[in-house]
Design a protein that fits this description.
Oligomer: single chain
Distance between the termini: 96 Å
Structural class: mainly beta
Largest sheet: 5 strands, parallel
Strand content: 35-45%
Order of helices and strands: HEEHHEEEEEEEEEEEEEEEEE
Shape: elongated
Radius of gyration: 23 Å
């Protein structure tokens, strides 16, 4: 019996379409939008468009099992860790990455189901981590709108009052940066410090009253802060110290990473 070549071609086409359909059903995708909001006093930061913002997807890092066990058995110890406190995008290579379009939109497709970390960053505009992003089969997860604010370069301040704002990125690039007046630190403020530099607080420092470690503020190394190559942070990249010399300091709900020396309290 002679087989019709047209029928064979049709069967092959239908098979390929089925395989492609099955592949799509087995994965998920995500989308969203990133906007740039200029809350500084510099009109030069007014964004023309929202294109070129890096959006990178990472696997959830494995937490230290010993500390995780201590967290479970002795929650009162205060040694709490989570993805939010441990993750640093420079320690890993992203699974996928893309950049936003002119209106800030982005989309990443064909993602295996699971839990991920999404990183949003743009040089001079800061860094945002969105942890515990859930991807499901055949579902397009819309993460909505996220905002980046202008990176703030920290110099020495003699005036009273400075506020490290939530979800903002601060960059210390002087060997010694001193805050003479009262300071407040909000949840999820990120302070990046260049290698060998120190930060000194001479006045009172108020930290967040909430105890959710997933909203912790953080001090960390500034080296390659906008790099997604997975180069990592070496000891030579660490900053020197953070010093609290005021009379009223109650450090809580924060993380110090990449310290070369120590956190010093002498008030």
């Amino acid at each position: 019996m002679k087989t019709n070549p047209l029928i064979i071609a049709l069967l092959v086409f239908v098979g390929l379409m089925c395989m492609n359909s099955c592949t799509k059903v087995s994965t998920g995708s995500l989308c969203g939008k990133v906007v740039l909001e200029n809350d500084s006093e510099d009109p030069a930061n007014d964004p023309v468009d929202y294109s070129g913002i890096t959006v990178a997807l990472y696997e959830i890092p494995e937490l230290d099992t010993t500390i995780t066990r201590i967290n479970t058995e002795y929650p009162q110890t205060g040694v709490q860790i989570s993805t939010e406190t441990q993750f640093d995008h420079r320690d890993y290579s992203p699974l996928r990455s893309t950049q936003t379009t002119g209106d800030g939109s982005y989309s990443i497709t064909d993602i295996d189901p699971g839990i991920y970390v999404l990183v949003l960053l743009k040089e001079l505009w800061g860094i945002r981590y969105i942890c515990s992003v859930s991807i499901e089969k055949a579902v397009d997860s819309d993460l909505g709108i996220a905002t980046l604010y202008p990176e703030k370069i920290c110099e020495s301040y003699t005036e009273a009052g400075f506020n490290f704002l939530a979800d903002h990125t601060y960059h210390v690039n002087q060997i010694s940066t001193t805050f003479m007046g009262a300071v407040s630190v909000e949840p999820k403020a990120q302070i990046y410090v260049e290698p060998g530099c120190s930060v000194r607080f001479m006045g009172s420092v108020a930290f967040p009253g909430e105890s959710d470690i997933n909203n912790a503020w953080v001090f960390k190394a500034a080296k390659n802060m906008y790099d997604i190559s997975g180069a990592g942070i070496e000891p030579a990249d660490y900053y020197s110290s953070v010093e609290f010399q005021g009379a009223s300091v109650d450090i809580k709900n924060g993380v110090f990473r990449h310290l070369g020396n120590a956190v010093l309290c002498s008030g």
